[in-house]
Design goal:
Length: 86
């Protein structure tokens, strides 16, 4: 569980090898993603919303207003999600 502090100006995007899943548990956050061509998209997420993303994209998460809590999962199988086997 990660606490995202209340908005305090701009954040520095990060990127790394892998894949993340993020679930908003409390509050509201804004997820920012920038691709290699410097196209940026942002998503407003509320409690119960989730996003999965390739972490080689530059990204950062900020609280929309008050502090928020998010759960982040980082799978161990590599850069892409593994198919579920039945």
């Amino acid at each position: 569980m990660i606490t995202v502090p209340a908005k305090r100006g701009s954040s520095t995007p990060t990127h790394h090898k892998g894949y993340n899943y993020l679930l908003v548990v409390e509050g509201k956050v804004i997820a920012h993603f920038t691709d290699a061509k410097k196209h940026t998209k942002k998503f407003d997420l509320s409690v119960g919303d989730a996003v999965a993303f390739d972490t080689t994209l530059k990204h950062y998460i900020e609280a929309a207003d008050a502090a928020a809590k998010v759960a982040v999962a980082r799978p161990t199988w590599g850069a892409e999600p593994s198919p579920i086997e039945e």
